[in-house]
Amino acid sequence: MIASEREAALAIRTPEGIEFSLRLAGPFSRMMALIVDLAVIAALARVIEQLAAPLAVFGVDLAGAVRIVAYFVMSLVYAAAAEWLWRGQTIGKRLMRLRVVDASGLRLEPAQVIVRNLMRFVDALPALYLVGGIACVASSRRQRLGDLAAGTVVIRTPAVERPDLEQLTGSKYNSLAEDRRLAARLRQKTSPEVARIALETLLRRDQLSPPARRETFAALARYLRETVTYPPETVEQLSDEAYVRDALEIVYRGERSA
Fold it and tell me: How many whole angstroms separate alpha carbon 150 and alpha carbon 237?
């Protein structure tokens, strides 16, 4: 099973003809992440149980019903909130270096997060996530039913070595690094997958035809500009390629030394 995880990958081909590969997570690593998340949920459930204890004065059955409903609601809210706030990760997925992404490699939408987590109760049937496990093994993209319904996949996010930025930076001045607050936000909000795709594009930029190069960097720059909005006077002189290059310098190296 572990060997199959190493072999499974999601190939993404852009309209400009650039192909990227994202390593898919398999059933074993996903189950380990699930075990961690279930432990977190169990700890939260214990807190809810103590909070619901006073309801026993109205009847043991009422207190039990409240605990059961609260447990299922909390399970859904925990997973959905964590995956949205942490860009596709829960505590378990963070520890196992996994991340939920759109099946096209794009950013998750709120509807996708909600759908895949609502389907979690179906995947858990009849017990121990048997339905979800079978679907994950049978799917070429390692998708459980929730992933199929939401159009998502779970990928592995190995630690990325810091690239040789001297290949990328064409100037000694990076206007995006001047505003430390926005630079910190850019580092925080830029996902590892987007940074990796942008880095590969920069390293392979000379292999692209001029039209493909312009279109690809325009799309990447647009995405990064929407991630963090800089004042117009800071970025108006930057071409799309320069914007991507300076943004990546911040993501991988942080602010330049003064």
Answer: 40
pLDDT at position 193 is 76
Q: What is the 3-state secondary structure (H, E, C) of 164-206?
A: CHHHCCCCCCCHHHCCHHHHHHHHHHCCHHHHHHHHHHHHCHH
How far is Cα 92 from Cα 36, in angstroms, rounded to an integer?
A: 5
Do 48 and 70 contact (CB within 8 A), yes or no?
Answer: yes
pTM: 0.69
Whole-angstrom Cα distance, residue 99 to residue 10?
13
CB burial of residue 131 (10 Å; 0-12, 13-18, 19+): middle
Listed residue (229, 165, 223, 222) closest to 199, CA to CA:
165
Pairwise CA distance, residues 101 & 239, whole Å: 29
Adjacent-strand bridge partners of 47: none
CA distances from 6 to 9, 25, 137 (A): 8, 8, 14
Helix (H) or strand (E) holding 214, with range, is helix 210-227
Q: Which two tokens stand for residue 57?
A: 């004065």
- Cβ neighbours of 248 (radius 10 Å): 25
What is the three-class DSSP state of 150? helix
Which pLDDT belongs to residue 188?
Answer: 86
Low-confidence ranges of the chain (pLDDT < 70): 1-7, 12-20, 105, 159-172, 254-258
**How do residues 58-96 score in pLDDT, each as one tens digit?**
777 777 777 788 778 888 899 999 999 888 999 999 999
